[in-house]
Amino acid sequence: MRTRLAIVILFALCALGLCGCEARQQGAEASLVLGFSQLGSESSFRIGNTRDIEDKAKQYGVSLMMDDANQKQENQIQAIRRFIAYRVDVIAFSPIVEEGWDNVLTEARQAGIPVILVDRTIQTEDHDLYVSQIGADFYQEGVMAAEYLLKKKADMGQDTLNIVEITGTENSTPMKRRHEGFMDTIAGQGLRVLESVSGDFLRSRGAECMRYLLGKYGDEIDVVFSHNDEMTVGALPEIEQAGYRPGQDMVIISIDGGQEAIDILKEGRINCIVECTPMLGSILMETALALKDGKAIDREIHPAERAFSDYDDLSNLPPRGY
Ligand code: AHR
Fold first, then answer.
1. What separation in Å is there between the alpha carbon of 100 and the centre of ligand 1?
2. Is the CB of 67 under 6 A from ligand 1?
3. Best of 139, 256, 259, 273 for a ligand 1 pocket test (most atoms within 8 Å of beta carbon)
4. Same domain for 258 and 288?
5. Within this chain, do residues 126 and 51 fall inside the same structural domain, yes or no?
6. For position 96, what pLDDT does the model report?
7. pLDDT single digits (tens) 127-166
8. Residue 153 CA to ligand 1 centre (angstroms)
9. Which residue in 24, 48, 64, 123 has the most C-beta neighbors within 10 A?
10. What domain count does the chain have?
């Protein structure tokens, strides 16, 4: 009843141009109304994630209200407040940063609407503010990046290597946890991080960061550890223009595993990519539907992920889909 009323109000508001969200209803009556606040469209990961959630909503017969926050936390907070006002059945969102969610999520709880975190997580003392977090184990991604590098270092016969790190958005879960996993794994192994700079997960910022790092450290750089494909692809031309061959003069390690970066890995200009899959739509729909049916759900759900590298035969790798 509540769902049907919400759909009617929602579509009326959208028809009047009062709704900043995009809503879809599948079939005569959707089984569930899901409000999803996407943080932006900064990378092929993010675009793939949005598309997968939209596709899977259709497939599962879920009516989706999708909002793009354009990289702004305040836009995500406003979107969540709109979802509460529409009385959606379930709210899901990918938090751009970890802190600052307690007030709005308390409002969702007071309205009796369960919240699912997708991709990233939040920092809070109040663990009942969300019911489940679906996303990568970012710490393990940092560990996998470091494990590749330790193997590479042994094969190169080097005692020490100097690393520059281009991280993602400050105070975001992937930025923090990838860094921690990487640093914990390289500790005491003769690997030194010259500097970490934030490239905000953006291609243009990856290029800027790389220019800065090359200007400051030049020949000292043995390894570039970049927290996503977008920034890596931005950094590569800078390395080449400075006279170095990425993949040979410098070891290049990236994260995500989108098609463009995988193709560059096959060319030999990237050495290793740790997978971060954006394909979270099915798990999200199944979790939201289980919640609606009052079934038990897992508090944390991590998809299986792997690393791709110049040690692998990637000739039969299926298209990545993002
Ligand atoms: O939260 C996942 C990260 O966000 C991806 O690695 C990056 O590409 C995206 O922007």
1. 20
2. no
3. 256
4. no
5. yes
6. 98
7. 999 999 999 999 999 999 999 999 999 999 999 999 999 9
8. 27
9. 64
10. 2
What CATH number corresponds to the domain at position 231? 3.40.50.2300
Assess whether pLDDT exceeds 90 at residue 14: no
Residue 74 lies in a domain: yes
Is residue 219 in some structural domain?
yes
Are 58 and 87 contained in the same domain? yes
> Does the C-beta of 275 come closer than 6 Å to ligand 1?
no
Indicate whether 209 and 269 sit together in one domain: yes
pLDDT of 1 > 70? The answer is: no
Cα of 300 from ligand 1 centre, angstroms: 18
Q: Residue 41: inside a domain, yes or no?
A: yes
Rounded Cα distance, 295 and 91, in Å: 17
Write out pLDDT tens, residues 207-256.
999 999 999 999 999 999 999 999 999 999 999 999 999 999 999 999 99
State the distance from the centre of ligand 1 to the C-alpha of 249, rounded, in angstroms. 27
Looking at the structure, tell me whether residues 174 and 227 fall in a common domain: yes
Q: Which run of H or E residues covers position 108?
A: helix 102-110
**Which residues, 6+ apart, have CB-to-CB distance to 48 below 8 Å?**
258, 278, 279, 321, 322
Tell me the percentage of the chain whose pLDDT exceeds 90.
90
Answer yes or no: is pLDDT of 24 > 80. Answer: no
Residue 55's φ and ψ, nearest 5 degrees, are -65, -45
Q: Is residue 25 a part of any domain in this protein?
A: no
Average the pLDDT over 32-44 and give the result. 98
For ligand 1, say whether the CB of 42 is within 6 Å of any of its atoms.
yes
- Token representation of residue 191: 């690997």
Q: Which domain holds residue 89?
A: 31-135+279-304
Distance between Cα 156 and ligand 1 center (Å) = 30
174 plus 291 within the same structural domain:
no
135 lines ligand 1 (CB under 6 A): no
d(CA 164, CA 160): 14
Q: Are residues 112 and 43 in the same domain?
A: yes
Percent of the chain topping pLDDT 70: 91
97: which DSSP letter?
A: S
What are the tokens at 278? 């954006």
Cβ of 273 below 6 Å from ligand 1: no
Q: What is the pLDDT of residue 31?
A: 85
In ligand 1, which atom is closest to the CA atom of 45?
8
CA atoms of 117 and 47, how far apart (whole Å): 17
